[in-house]
Structures are given as structure tokens and as C-alpha cells.
Automatic annotation (TrEMBL):
Family matches, as Pfam families: UEV, Vps23_core
Keywords from the named record: Coiled coil, Endosome, Protein transport, Transport
Domain of life: Eukaryota
PROSITE patterns: SB, UEV
Name under which the protein is recorded: UEV domain-containing protein
Principal cellular location given in the protein's record: other
Cell location: Endosome
Ligase keyword on record: no
Organism, scientific name: Anopheles quadriannulatus (Mosquito)
Molecular functions per Gene Ontology: ubiquitin binding
SUPFAM superfamilies linked: Endosomal sorting complex assembly domain, UBC-like
Positions of the UEV domain: 3-146
Protein family (similarity comment): Belongs to the ubiquitin-conjugating enzyme family. UEV subfamily.
């Protein structure tokens, strides 16, 4: 891909969250698979919503029973690529039909373990296409439609050059080759082998037809005009056809079972992880239950203590307020009495002011009483200060 195409691709990916990584991934795939092209189209999701997405469309080479076929596919890249896996489809031509299997559904959508377990850190389009090529080489996703024909058992007699006749296969020989892909030079992964590119690389050439419809007889030797068809020949032909059909069904069943086993293993792993989490939650709940039990026991003990204290208060006779508080030394008693008397003078001063404001007493009486109370309050404060010094209290 030349510089102009890279710039165009960069513009197509301007709405993607990681355009740099996506561009690199796409270019790596297009450099290897020349039968693919890229374009931006509208993709319709299952819920009816649409979005403009980049897709790779065209053909990829697939080896099947020694022949190389061009399988048409379309790979849609999400705008979150490579965080989310691409959505892949087989796009059959009018001459083809989709062969439903564990990897392709009726709509042509492709299901692969590689897509299901897509890892953004190490998964890319090149590996995905290679895995498609290998998988489709084992289970072809399409087959030639062709007209309905009646099978004529071929002769297995050696051909006689002088009297041999042409052989018409039970399916059409046309195939889909809009994207020329070279047959020779491809390795087992559908990727061009080193040194395959050279003069004439990518030019059209004679390709074998697509695999016939499921259940049809393929791979027989062309019949000849002078051969005699015996019961033994028919029996060998039927046995060969049954063997091929059984092999395909067994392989499909094995692939399906492997996919189910992988799903079960993932489910088992999720269940094991959930079991560990549940055990941790249970352990935490048991610890919390023990702590709550201890707290409940402490609260019950305190409740009993309060009940006993209330009972003892009910049995006590009336208490003299003056005797409710006692001191341990005469000095402390003197300090306590002085403090109580000083607090009483403070209250008396407040109420004298209220009486003056209310007009209960006149100003002369107020001033006389205030002078007496202030003098006495001064003496009490001096006494408390001396008592605190004697007792060693802070000033």
C-alpha cells in the first residue's frame, strides 16, 4: 500500500478511538492478503442502530483437499478496535450457498474461538485471517449451488486414450474469482510463502471449482466409454462416498464438541472464581457475626448494671443537698463553701439589676446593696485564691 492509501486509511479511521493501532493492524493484513480491500460503510446492528465502520472485504485463499479456493469474506472493525473483536461474515456469490457448521451460521456470520476469546493485547487481523483459512480448509463455509443433477456412477477402469470420452462433473465448474489470488506458493495458513511474489504475482489463473454440495460424490476418476461398470465398482464408489460423508460429519461433530468443551471450561473457571468470592464473603460475614455477638453481650452487661443502679437509687432515702457533697480535708471544704457563696452573690447581683430595671427598687437601694455584695464577693475570691495556692492547684 502506497503513501496515498495510508493517508486515505488514516482519514477513514479518524472517528476510531485508537486509529494508530487500527491502521497498523489493517495495513499488516492488506500487505499479505492482496485479495482484500478496505472501505467505510454503514453497519446495522441487531437493535436497528447504525454506525459508519471500516470493513475488509474480498477473498482469502483456502486449501481444501489439495486445491486452493478463494473464499469471499467481510470483516467489520468496531470503532473501539482492537479493544473489541471484529464481526466477520462469509459473503457467498449467487453461485454459492452457505454451508452451516459450528463456525458459520445461516446468515454467514463466523464464530471462532479466537473471536470469542479476543485479547486486545496480542490478537490482530493477520492471525484472525490465518485461523479462518485453516478452519475453512477443514470445514468449507460455502459450496457450489449448481443445477439439480442425477448422479451417474463413474467407471474405475483404466482410461483408453483411443476411445476415452470427456467427463462432466456433477456440479458447475464456474467459481468466484473477482479477486485474483495465486494458487501456488501459499503455505498451510493461507498466507503467501516467502519468495512467492514475483513476476505475474496476483494475476488470474485457472482455479478448481468450489467444493460440491454436501452429500454429492466428488473426487472420482473420470468415466471412460469402453469401461464396464460392475457391482464391485458401484460398491467401491458408494463406500468412498459414505466414508467422505462420515468423515465430514465426524469432523463437524468433533469441532462442535471441542467448542462446547471450551465453553464448559470457561463456565467452570467462572464458577470456581465465584466460589472463591462467595467463600471470602462468608468468612467476612462470620467475622462480623462474632463481633456483633460480642457487642451484644457487652450491651446486655451494661444494661444489667444500669438496672442494678436504678434499683439501688430507688432504695435510698432522701438525700440532704448540703451533705450530698463532702470533702476529704477542711481546706477543700473551705474552698467549696467560698465558691458556693461567691456563685450565690453573682446570682444576687443579677437579680438586683433586674429589680432595678423593673422599678421594684430605686437606685439608692440598688447601689447600697451592690456595694455590700461586691465587697463580700471580693473577699471570697481572695479567700479562694489563697486556698488554691495552699492546696497546690493551678491559679
Amino acid at each position: 500500500m502506497h503513501k496515498l492509501d495510508e493517508n486515505a486509511l488514516a482519514r477513514m479511521l479518524s472517528s476510531y478511538r485508537d486509529p494508530t493501532t487500527t491502521k497498523k493492524d489493517v495495513m499488516n493484513a492488506l500487505r499479505i492478503y492482496h485479495g482484500l480491500q478496505h472501505r467505510v460503510e454503514e453497519y446495522v446492528f441487531n437493535d436497528g442502530s447504525t454506525k459508519m465502520l471500516l470493513n475488509l472485504h474480498g477473498t482469502i485463499p483456502v486449501k481444501y483437499k489439495g486445491n486452493t479456493y478463494n473464499i469471499p469474506i467481510c470483516i467489520w472493525l468496531m470503532d473501539t478496535h482492537p479493544k473489541n473483536a471484529p464481526i466477520c461474515y462469509v459473503k457467498p456469490t449467487p453461485e454459492m450457498r452457505i454451508k452451516v457448521s459450528a463456525y458459520v451460521d445461516f446468515n454467514g456470520k463466523i464464530y471462532l474461538p479466537y473471536l470469542h476469546d479476543w485479547n486486545p493485547k496480542n490478537a490482530d487481523l493477520l492471525d484472525l485471517i490465518q485461523i479462518m483459512s485453516v478452519t475453512f480448509g477443514e470445514v468449507p463455509p460455502v459450496y457450489s449451488k449448481g443445477p439439480e443433477t442425477t448422479y451417474q456412477p463413474p467407471s474405475y477402469m483404466p482410461p483408453t486414450p483411443a476411445t476415452s470420452t470427456s467427463y462432466n462433473p456433477p456440479y458447475p465448474t464456474q467459481q468466484f474469482t473477482p479477486y485474483p489470488v495465486p494458487g501456488p506458493g501459499y503455505n498451510s495458513y493461507g498466507q503467501p510463502a516467502p519468495g512467492a511474489a514475483g513476476p505475474g504475482y496476483g494475476m488470474p489463473y485457472g482455479m478448481p471449482p468450489y467444493p460440491p454440495a454436501p452429500g454429492s460424490i466428488s473426487g472420482q476418476t473420470p468415466s471412460v466409454g469402453t469401461g464396464t461398470i460392475t457391482e464391485e465398482h458401484i460398491r467401491a464408489s458408494l463406500i468412498s462416498a459414505v466414508e467422505d460423508k462420515l468423515k465430514r460429519r465426524v469432523q463437524e461433530k468433533v469441532n462442535q464438541c471441542q467448542a462446547e468443551v471450551q465453553t464448559l471450561r470457561r463456565t467452570q473457571q467462572e464458577l470456581n472464581e465465584g466460589q472463591v468470592k462467595i467463600k471470602e464473603i462468608m468468612s467476612r460475614l462470620e467475622r462480623d457475626e462474632k463481633e456483633l455477638t460480642k457487642s451484644i453481650t457487652v450491651l446486655k452487661d451494661k444494661e444489667k448494671e444500669l438496672e442494678r443502679a436504678l434499683e439501688s437509687l430507688d432504695n435510698v432515702e432522701s438525700i440532704d443537698v448540703d451533705e450530698a457533697v463532702t470533702t476529704t480535708a477542711p481546706l477543700y471544704k473551705q474552698l467549696l463553701n467560698a465558691y458556693a457563696e461567691e456563685a450565690a452573690i453573682e446570682d444576687a447581683t443579677y437579680f438586683m439589676g433586674e429589680a432595678l430595671r423593673s422599678g421594684v427598687i430605686d437606685l439608692e437601694v440598688f447601689l447600697k446593696q451592690i456595694r455590700q455584695l461586691s465587697r463580700k464577693q471580693f473577699m471570697l475570691r481572695a479567700l479562694m485564691q489563697k486556698c488554691r495556692q495552699k492546696a497546690g492547684f493551678s491559679a
